[in-house]
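W.,

You were right to be curious about this one. When I first looked at the sequence I had no strong expectations either way, so I just let the prediction run and decided to look at it fresh. Below is the sequence, 208 residues in total, followed by the output.
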Amino acid sequence: MKTKISPQTKREVLQHVRNRYQEAIKSENSRILDEFVALTKCHRKHAIRLLTAMDAAKPETPSSSRRIYAEAVREALTILWEAADRICGKRLKTILPRFLDSMERHQHLSLDPAIRKLVLAVSAATIDRLLAPVRTGASQRKKRPRATKPSRHVPIRTFADWKEPEPGFLEIDFVSHGGSSMQGVFLWSLVATDVSSGWTEMIPLVAA
């Protein structure tokens, strides 16, 4: 029955055999190499590279583990990014500690402690890099259409153009929150603001 040695044992054997291999005469190297290959089950060419290396053997960190962690961090950041209305990496990094606490407190997200630590440690630039493929695939906001000829005659006033109006003059917004599709159930928000006092009323309306 074949017995597989542990990585730690393999490193110890390599350190011992490497010294013998590099100090032995050429006629003995083949026998030492055969013994090492039989014990560690390494490919012969790989074994030669290990035995002829000058530096001591370093613990191997599988690249697959790094990829798994990177993907887990990307998935967590994607959930947080979507919940934060797809803000940029710099803004997401700023709110991340409190936002993540809130998401976990309300049971919208549950992270492994190691992944949570990596998510909190990630930089704004790395957030943008990890989310780049997600942003590319996400539906983009539609550009505002150019003003038509009739709409050019409708006066648009900013807060500085009201000239102290009396109470009762309202700014009203009616906004759809269905994204790029009008199908399914989603919310509309009706917001009315009194320009003079700043009093605001907000009403959510369900569209089905």
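Here's what jumped out at me. DSSP finds seven helices and three strands in the chain. And, maybe more interesting for your project: Strands lie at 170-176, 186-194, 200-207.

Coffee later to discuss?

I.
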